[in-house]
Amino acid sequence: MHPEHQLKLFCTTCHQVICGECSTLLHRDHRCTTVSRAGKVYGRFVRSAIEQTRPLEDYALQSVGRLNDLTVRINSRCEAVQQEVDAFVDEYVAALEEHRRTLSEQIGNIRQAKMEMIMAQKLDLERRSQNSRAAIEFAEELMTEGSEVENLLFVSILLKRFEQCLKSTRALDSTVTDTVQFLADEEAPNVRVQTGVPLFGIVTTQKADPQQSGIEHSAGELATLKAHKRVQLTLVVRDYEGRRLGHGGITVQTDLRFRDDDDHSVPMTIADNRDGSYGLTFVPSRPGVMHLMLFVDGKLLEECPVVLRIHKLRPHYGVYHCCTFCSSSGSKGGTCACGSIMPGGYRGCGHGHEGHPGQRHWSCCGSLQEYSDCTALVGKERQHNE
Predict the structure, then answer these.
(1) Nearest CA to 136 among 191, 128, 17?
(2) Beta-sheet pairing, 269-272 with 277-282
(3) Which of 29, 66, 152, 275 has its Cβ near the most Cβ atoms within 10 Å?
């Protein structure tokens, strides 16, 4: 602004080099100093800033190097994972194609077997038809043209032939049916064994038959059930030949009620074991007679209603406690059938001491289950109760 004047001053407020005229006109009341002094002061500031910034430059360069290395590792890892994915998918696709081929082969074998059985039956029926026709024609001709003596001579032979025809008369073989179905939700176990890849979908010719299916139990088992104790039953589903199904996926429904309370059903848990059997579990809330209705694919089982007799538990005469010390309020005379003895002159158990069952139990018999039959002798029950 004033070229005729030298720039000898430095305004520290505006960070500008100025002349004397500017200091009085434009930079009045600003803090100003000489250029030489400002150069020394700000020179120190700049050198200090350089020293402070230099490590940041080095750190940035090192960080860039590390990021470059990380980029290489990420690319390498992604390529490796991509190869793993491709290999897995290729293996899975190959297993799927093999599974498709196996299922198609099974369907072909089933078709061929059924066609061969049907053809054998057709040939058998044709043979039986020819034999019957021959016997009928011979008998009709003999009855029409033969004399009574001739008829009597052949009557024994004719009756035997008719008897043979009647013996072979039977309905179509029931083993030949159109039952072929694909169960998409069933795992194919053989495929997992061979390839390690879990695949689903099986072809089966078995069909559940409610008349052949039923509860599997030993003699008297259903009449000795106890209240408050878990009941586990096994439903075995069979086909029309009485063979146990080799797969799961059957719709099983239950309806369990007390005989004297038909308005309320008892909940039951159903577990598909995937081998033609189903676990049925429930806990009866009280003694009584229960009726169990079972449905397989919406059809009622022939043996229903299944009668379940629920009995009372043998009562406990002791205390269901954590230990004798707690249940007796620290008495040394209390005893417990668990057999543990608390040190210090006590006759019963104490939790945390040697021999203690580690959980709540009955003092009369040592049973760990709160709802259970008492297994102690009557005399011992009373002794421990005392």
Answers:
(1) 128
(2) antiparallel
(3) 275
Continuous segment of H or E residues that includes residue 232: strand 231-236
**Is position 42 within any domain?**
no
8 Å CB contact between 284 and 265: no
233 part of a folded domain: yes
Residue 21: C-alpha distances to residues 2, 24, 298, 360 (Å)? 8, 5, 108, 101
Residue 381 lies in domain: 317-341+352-385
Number of domains in the chain: 2
- What CA–CA distance (Å, rounded) separates 223 from 212? 22
Give yes or no for residue 132 having a pLDDT over 80.
Answer: yes
Cis peptide before 305 (omega within 30 of 0): yes
Coil, helix or strand at residue 263: strand
Torsion of CA 200, 204, 209, 210, to 10 degrees: 0
Exposed / middle / buried, residue 350 (Cβ in 10 Å: 0-12, 13-18, 19+): buried
Take residue 327 and report the two structure tokens written for it.
């249940």
Statement to judge: residues 228 and 303 lie in one domain: yes
349/277 Cα distance (integer angstroms): 45
Contact criterion met (CB below 8 Å) for 217 and 303: no
pLDDT in tens, 255-298: 999 999 988 999 999 999 999 999 999 999 999 999 999 999 99
How far apart CA 230 and CA 266 sit, in angstroms, is: 13
pTM attached to this predicted model: 0.63
Beta-bridge mates of residue 242? none
Residue 73 phi/psi, 5° resolution? -65, -40
**Rg for the chain (alpha carbons), in Å?**
48
365: helix, strand or coil = coil
Model confidence pLDDT, tens digit, residues 198-249: 889 999 999 999 999 999 988 778 888 999 889 999 999 999 888 999 899 8
